[in-house]
Amino acid sequence: MTLVPDARDWVRAGTDLLLGGLVRLNDADLHQPCALPGWTRRQLLAHVASNAEALRRLLTWASTGVETPMYASPAERNAAIQSGATRADLRHWVATSAVELADSAAAMSVEAWSAEVVTAQGRVVPAEETWWMRAREVCVHAVDLDVGTTFADLPGGFLAALLDDIAAWRSSRPGPAVLLTTPDTHHEITGDGTPVKVDLPLATAAAWLSGRHREVGLPTLPSWL
Ligand code: ZN
Fold it and tell me: Which of 17, 80, 148, 162 could staple 50 via S-S, CB 3.0–4.6 A?
């Protein structure tokens, strides 16, 4: 997968933005809502930390051949967020889980990266896909943390890859048909009705397509992930 070297950089960039945002928040701020409707910042951070642990399980699976899924069940995934959100060492957990994931990645053999694993969404992917999965988590949730980071702060290559990802995801689900154009990208999203032409700057397009930007005149989209 040609994305891997870039995705590795985006994991680092997104992690830096997330942890950089976290140090600007005091403990009271962490109890406040984040930009993700219905979520507090503590819940968001617990989700990011438990995602690192879940992706590590996929790397273990790829390395050993012993099936270790990201989460035993959706209920367990949610329980990990709820209990993790109350942890006294939440800040530390977010940072150390990211380091441990990076350490596990560094210890992978070349062959293990192409071993197949199954994501929480049920997709069969080579282990190297975890780079993109993690990049998406840390970059988008760095914005969701709502401490000043915006999509315009994310790498342009990441934003274009995010549009590819979400456009494909939306094309296989109910929603409006859209022709989405930015100065750098063009996506045809299949869906209901005559395609609506949407022309936006790259960062705004990524924010809109991921359900994080609303603007009069833009079609309403079903929520993404
Ligand atoms: Zn997430």
Answer: 80
Instruction: Compute the distance between CA of residue 146 and CA of residue 130 in angstroms, rounded to an integer.
Output: 25
Distance 193 CA to ligand 1 centre (A): 30
| pTM, 2 dp | 0.96
Q: How far apart are the first and last CA of the chain?
A: 23
Which residues, at least 6 apart from 194, have a Cβ–Cβ distance to it below 8 Å?
177
- Residues measured by CB to lie within 5 Å of ligand 1, the ion: 137
Ligand 1 centroid to residue 137 C-alpha, Å: 5
Q: Which amino acid is at 24?
A: R
- Domain extent listing, the chain: 7-149, 156-209
Tell me yes or no: is domain 7-149 CATH 3.30.390.50: no
What pLDDT digit, counting tens, does each position of 150-172 carry?
Answer: 999 999 999 999 999 999 999 99
